[in-house]
Amino acid sequence: MRVPTPISPFLLLLLTTTFFSTFTTATPRPSPSLPHRTLAGISVIDTPMVRDAQAYARLHCSPSTYNHIMRSWLFGVLHLSHDPALASKVDLEVHALGLMLHDLANNQSLSAPFITMDRRFEVDSAFAAADFIRSHPDGKKWPDYRVQRVWDGIALHAEPKLALYKEPDVFAIYWGNELEFSWDRPGGEQKGVTKEERERVLREFPRPTEGGGGGTLAFIAWWCRYKPESTYNTWMQPFGELLVPGYSAVGHRLIDRSLAAVGLNMSDILK
Fold it and tell me: How many whole angstroms from its chain centre is CA 55?
């Protein structure tokens, strides 16, 4: 008997969103058509949209989150500088906004802007970024596919099993954030970013001096405690089961829903 498997709300949202096959081409190096500035010794795109996105992130993010998203952007730019083939396919404004706005909903307050009770924080951040673009004078001129690339890059920035098979913009946004964590992890990817380059970024946008990895665990635990519905069937779920007393995904897992659809439960199967 084939048991029907319900589609998770997150994947359903992705599947029902319009995707475009058009790829944009841009260069990460200074050019007459793309203004650049130097930040932490790195040449970065410097359009009004990028400047305003940085200011928007500073306004809505905590100091530690703001430094994180800036490090992610700069690590992403360094990644492109070491991979010219990928860089030739990446839209630098999409890349910059996707990384600088990817944590807009990373705020541990249920009354904070952009936060909903049921959506993953990545999705809340993706919608907030899209709203920012569509309300910006220059963003209003963007074709839909560019907004979609930012949305996808943010929504999938913690989902390598999906992001790594998407368009180059989404792929590159994923790696910008991932390099923040993987560079100094044993066996982690470095994507050509050198120790000296990384240290320049860390000097410009330092990590918290207290908390370390515990701060990341506290962040995950907060979501599992106060927005559990948004964490079931995600990478956060195992952390909730380990860190948060009373947290349980039983009844919310895909297997639970699949069995319920045919009138079964786990106890019936384990008899």
Answer: 18
The DSSP string of 70-91 is HHHHHHHHHHHHT-HHHHTT--
In degrees and rounded to multiples of 5, residue 37 shows phi and psi of -140, 170
Query: All domains of the chain, ordered by start, with CATH?
Result: 9-27+34-206 (1.10.3210), 213-271 (no CATH)
pLDDT digits (tens, 9 = 90+) for 135-157: 999 999 999 999 999 999 999 99
Question: Average pLDDT in the 203-230 region?
Answer: 79
| Mean pLDDT score of the chain | 84
Instruction: Count CB neighbours of 138 within 10 A.
Output: 13
Residue found under tokens 């890059």: 153
Q: Which two tokens stand for residue 131?
A: 């709203």
Q: Which residue has the tokens 């890349």?
A: 95
pTM assigned to the model: 0.79
What does the pLDDT look like over 243-267, one tens digit per residue?
Answer: 899 988 888 787 877 877 777 766 6
**CB 154, CB 148: distance < 8 Å:** no
